[in-house]
Each structure stands twice: as structure tokens, then as C-alpha cells.
User: Fold Rhodanese-like domain-containing protein from Dankookia rubra.
Amino acid sequence: MPSVPDISPAETWEALRADPDAVLIDVRTDAEWNFVGLPDLAEAGKQPLLVPWQVYPSMQVNGAFAEHLRRAGLTPENKLFFICRSGVRSLSAGMAAQAEGFPHAFNVADGFEGPVDAEGHRGKVAGWKADGLPWRQR
Assistant:
């Protein structure tokens, strides 16, 4: 049975910069993209592909998820790096992508914001932002 390996945000960033066919797929909701921010891939000559895994506000799984990947021109040859807030939804999205014929799926460990710190805030302990990787407000 295929599995979706966890890969650190720093390793993801290096893969995105080195491999022209590598794609970062942000599976958070539109509200998260707008209010929390997005990975900034301009230095890699790319933009994240924004495809929600769950649809806000019902948070039902996006039944057209794999179709969105195909419509974006992705193929089984692409290396797909899935990112969410903390690495949970992105793991599910990666597993679904593998089941739909995308074998090279990776989960960005700790996601964009990572776990909460002692004060209950995200973005400081682990994840894309905490690792100091480029990001921007939408």
C-alpha cells in the first residue's frame, strides 16, 4: 500500500527550487489563504496551487479534489507537495492524490503554521513560517 512521506518545509522548499515539475499544493481554505498568508514561491519561479481539501464552512471533503489537480495540468510524473495548517489535512489530501493516480505525493510536515506554542499561538514552533521560509499575505 502506498504511503505519503512527511518531508520538512526546508526540504520541500529545496525540492521546489530544484525540480521544475515539483508543485506545492496548499489545501487550506480560502479564509486561511486570505487571513493567514501563503507560501511565497516567487524565488522558485512558481506559485502554490490552491485547492481546498475541505470546503468552508461545512468542512466537507472536496469531492472534486482530484479533478482540480488534473485540470491544473498535473500528471503522475509531477512531484506533489501538499501543505495545510499543521500537516493533517495535507496528509489526507496526499493519500487521496495517490489513490487517484498521483504516486509522487509528499506531506509537508507541520504545515504552514505548525503546532501551537505554550501561549496557544501558531507559526513559531515548527512549519513553513517558523522555518523562516518565504511567505506573504494575500
